[in-house]
Every structure is written in C-alpha cells, then in structure tokens.
Write a structure and sequence with these properties.
Length: 251
C-alpha cells in the first residue's frame, strides 16, 4: 500500500484550470521526480499535496485512509514537510533557531529549553554530515553555502519525523559540488525510511536521484515511468515531444 495517494486532483484559479485529474502515489523510501515545463502545473500539484491549496476535486489517502479535511497543519501531522525553493530560512538567525522556529522545545513552565534545542541541533548537524569546524548550532544561516542551507532544511524535516519531504528546485543555482551534497542529503532521507518528491528543471539531476518520474503537461500527467524504463536522454526527448503535442505512446 502506498504511503500517500492523491487521486483525481483538480484545481482551478478563476477560469484557469491549473491541474486536472492528476493521480500520484508515493511509496515508502521512494524519490519521485515531478517534471514539466513552466506552467505545467507542478507547483499547483505540489501545493495541494502540501496542503497549501485545497483541491477542487479528488481524494487524498494517507496509509490507505481517506482524509476528509486537508490543510498545511494536517499535512504536517501526516508527515509531509516541504523544503521550498527559497528554503524559507531566517538568514540572520542560528541553525538551532531555524530548526525549532514555531515548534520550540519547552520546559514544564513553558520556557524554551535552549540547552536541549542546541543539543538536538548539534546531533542533527553531525547526522547530516555538516562536519566543518565553522558550523555549529549557533552558526548563522547567512554564513552557510546553498547546499548547507538545504541540509539545514532537510535536517529540520528529519527531526519532525517526516514521511514525505517535498523538495522544490533544491539544486537551483548550486555548483556541481553543492548539488552532490544535496543528493547526499536525499540519500540520507531514504536511509531514514523517508520518501521525497523532487521538483527540478534539470533532467540530469532528476535522473541521478529519482526512482520514478511523473511528467506534467498543461495540468495533466503526460506519462509516468520508472528509472529502469528510461534514460536521461530519453526523458529529454520525450518532454520535447510532449511540448510539441506528440503523444509518447504513439511515437
């Protein structure tokens, strides 16, 4: 049974149908790549999965159980965490503050347990492989590289026992070395029995890290395939055909 199933999801914004009849399932320890051109519906679909948008139609199932309500808080409670493209981190604040912001560990009288938060942050930093001597729980986010910032965001998701982490363009503007660091973080998620949705315009990055691919075109799924069924070059050619209106199955 899939961890998460999203059946017949549809979403309109006024007269624009951004997503229409999309079916996506996410299995355990699976990295699913969501691909498509700008305007294909990727952000809207992921927004519905994360609870940001309410679907106009469709069903959401968690461990086979149909959800009657769905929003960001419920999605988080179900184990879905999102790492946004801008990483949604407070640059001036420390790693510890960013990990626990809004979900602070508190003592019996309601005071923030600063010491425990710092200890937990130190453990997360080591587990994520951020071993530089310049990085500790008190390090300000603004001093970190792009890949290291992604690591902090992913560490935060791990701490809150995420079952599914949504990564929105995580390698945008990163060097090859930094991108490989992000891939290492994603492999760490899989080691922790966590699944991922990986959104990227870089087909080669997607092919390197994903187990399965879902290609969207104008709000609908053009096709889905596993990594074993295709190559990076084939994915590029298929997406070019889709952009030209050529059906993959008949080409």
């Amino acid at each position: 049974m899939p961890l998460f199933e999203f059946k017949n999801l549809s979403k309109r914004f006024g007269r624009i149908e951004a997503v229409s009849g999309v079916d996506v399932s996410i299995g355990e320890c699976e990295v699913v790549g969501i691909l498509g051109d700008n305007g294909a519906g990727k952000s809207t679909m992921v927004g519905m999965i994360a609870g940001v948008y309410q679907p106009d139609n469709g069903e959401i199932l968690v461990d086979g159980r149909r959800m009657t309500k769905w929003d960001v808080a419920i999605a988080r409670g179900a184990g879905i965490e999102t790492v946004f493209q801008d990483r949604a981190l407070a640059d001036q604040q420390s790693i510890t503050t960013n990990i626990f912001m809004g979900r602070e560990i508190r003592k019996a009288l309601g005071f923030i347990d600063v010491r425990r938060q710092r200890q937990e942050s130190a453990t997360l930093i080591r587990e994520m492989g951020l071993t530089s001597r310049l990085i500790d729980p008190d390090t300000a986010i603004l001093t970190l590289s792009g890949g290291e910032r992604q690591g902090v965001s992913i560490a935060r998701a791990l701490y809150y026992r995420a079952k599914l982490v949504i990564l929105d363009e995580p390698t945008t503007a990163l060097s090859l070395t930094e991108s490989e660091k992000v891939f290492q973080f994603i492999r760490k998620l899989k080691d922790e029995r966590c699944s991922c949705i990986f959104i990227s315009h870089n087909i080669y990055h997607s092919y390197d890290i994903c187990d399965r691919f879902v290609v969207l075109d104008r709000g609908k799924i053009a096709y889905q395939c596993s990594k074993e069924e295709t190559t990076a070059e084939s994915l590029i050619k298929d997406m070019q055909k889709i952009a030209k209106g050529v059906n993959r199955m008949s080409s």
